[in-house]
Design brief:
By secondary structure, the chain is an alpha+beta fold. The protein is built from 20 helices and eleven strands. Strand 7 (about 360-365) and strand 8 (about 365-370) form a beta hairpin. Helix 6 (about 135-150) runs parallel beside helix 16, helix 9 packs across helix 14 and helix 14 runs antiparallel to helix 16.
């Protein structure tokens, strides 16, 4: 009986010691951690290919590499998405957000996916999209993941669907809305004048512009043909008061170009009169553009110096995204996983990366961004579930990083967040004192 009581007492003392030890660790970490990022262990299969550097997904695509983990459809890979050039994460006070992402959102590549079906589905998206569309890069990542996982089957599928792929290469840039804006700028003015009364001219213009965003023409009761929604903007001046009492629909850039070309500065004055009622959309910003002396621009100057220059610059960016697609279909795979790496992807587990060194830039709400970080240098902490601590430590040993990175159980995370919400990060204290 005494032996049983002694064992129970020892267990109680050991548990108390562990709780004190964890509390001490949590306090120390909460004061040191400057940034956290949720992912999963699939990242560890890929990170040696980037010299152990955590790189934004957009820049990985430029290197013809796709991340094998992480969501790719929640806005981060849109043309202006954060993951094109930056890596998002959270401070220690929001460490649970990063952990929940790692545990629930950061899905690894599905090794049971039907590659042929996924390949065909991705081609279907590219057949209707252009490099300007939001789903373009996320679709490229899906394709590149297939290529990295099974290069031979990917090559065979490319051969089987070669005609579709050639169509995508040939037509995807032409489907760009920006291309259609340039065509609207270059459309012969005499054709626009004819289109006021000539149905065939209207059809020629729509064919010239192409795409679904051709102009719809409306015949008013008085017989006058106007652009779709033009009646919102082209009331006589005495009707502006009426307009100000009604909801307005923002014009597209193409329609704005056509209106300015057809009706010049007269139209511009009226558009400027109602423009303040709109959010600062692209067409409205163009209408309110000024020269270096602070003077409002003429209709022609807006078309040629504001809209054309902006669209041409944008198209250069979209050509880079187009080239990402070409490299996937035309180049041999840069990544081919070894068996141990394939197993790491198949048996992935949540992984939270943390740093006690980087000074992130605040984005909005709880999101903080960095440009890149090296595993074993800026990234010096791993958090995993207790049962995955040995696997994480084994990976560090295999890559000679065991002296540079400490592995902690995820059971510390709640207390770290609680303490960090009280304590200001030390690097912010330093910054505030400078």
């Amino acid at each position: 009986m005494n032996i049983l009581k002694n064992n129970q007492l020892q267990n109680t003392n050991y548990q108390a010691f562990k709780e004190i030890e964890q509390s001490t660790q949590s306090q120390a970490l909460a004061k040191k951690i400057t940034w956290t990022h949720g992912t999963n262990s699939s990242l560890l299969a890929l990170i040696p290919r980037t010299d152990y550097t955590l790189i934004p997904s957009g820049k990985l695509l430029d290197r013809q590499i796709a991340p094998m983990s992480g969501e790719i459809t929640q806005g981060g890979m849109t043309p202006n998405g954060v993951n094109q050039t930056l890596i998002s994460g959270c401070l220690a006070k929001d460490i649970n957000i990063s952990w929940n992402y790692a545990d629930k959102t950061s899905h690894s590549f599905d090794i049971h996916v039907c590659i042929a079906k996924e390949f065909k589905s991705s081609l279907d998206v590219l057949m209707r999209a252009s490099p300007e569309h939001d789903e373009w890069d996320s679709t490229l990542i899906s394709l590149l993941r297939l290529k990295q996982w099974d290069p031979k089957e990917f090559e065979q599928l490319c051969f089987e669907h070669r005609n579709t792929i050639e169509t995508i290469k040939k037509e995807s840039l032409e489907r760009s809305p920006s291309k259609r804006v340039l065509k609207a700028i270059d459309c012969p003015l005499e054709e626009l004048e004819k289109a006021k009364e000539d149905l065939e001219a209207q059809q020629r213009i729509n064919a010239f512009i192409g795409g679904k965003n051709g102009i719809n023409w409306i015949e008013k009761p008085d017989g006058k043909i106007l652009f779709e929604c033009r009646e919102v903007f082209f009331y006589p001046k005495q009707s502006v008061d009426l307009l100000n009492q009604s909801p307005l629909k923002t014009p597209s850039l193409i329609k704005t170009v056509f209106r300015l070309r057809l009706y010049g500065n007269t139209e511009l004055e009226l558009l400027r009169e109602v423009a303040p009622r709109f959010e600062k959309t692209e067409p409205v910003k163009a209408l309110l553009a000024k020269d270096k002396k602070g003077r409002l621009l003429s209709a022609e100057a807006i078309i040629q110096r504001v809209i054309r220059e902006k669209i041409e610059l944008r198209l250069k960016h979209y050509h880079l995204r187009y080239n990402r697609m070409l490299s996937i279909f035309d180049n041999p795979p840069l990544v081919q996983f070894r068996d141990v790496e394939r197993q790491m992807i198949a048996l992935h587990f949540p992984l939270l990366l943390a740093s006690t060194h980087v000074k992130p830039v605040e984005s909005y709400h709880h999101e903080y961004k960095i440009q890149q970080a090296i595993i074993g240098k800026e990234i010096d902490l791993f958090f995993v579930k207790p049962e995955h601590v040995p696997a994480a430590q084994d990976w560090l040993k295999d890559h000679n990083l065991q002296e540079r990175i400490s592995v902690y159980p995820s059971t510390l995370i709640d207390e770290i967040e609680k303490i960090a919400r009280i304590e200001k990060p030390f690097w912010k204290k330093i910054f505030c004192c400078c």
